[in-house]
Design a protein that fits this description.
Elements (H helix, E strand, L loop, with lengths): L1 H60 L4
Length: 65
């Protein structure tokens, strides 16, 4: 019985190590991607605010009906 359990863990060992390695790798990459996405969204938000301000200025210059 002990030999079969030992054999099971020996055969699953490399897969378990690979799984943990891939899990950590994917989690790191996701964190990096989320940081880049957050920075990109912040940049778009700043540009959006600038565009809205300029549109408001243009709208104020137009004659009112």
């Amino acid at each position: 019985m002990d030999e079969t359990i030992l054999q099971y863990f020996i055969t699953q060992g490399p897969w378990a190590v690979l799984f943990v390695f891939l899990l950590v790798y994917v989690m790191k990459k996701n964190a990096e991607r989320e940081t880049r996405l957050h920075n990109t969204l912040d940049a778009f938000a700043n540009k959006y605010d600038i565009v809205i301000k300029k549109l408001d200025k243009i709208e104020n210059r137009l004659p009112k009906e």
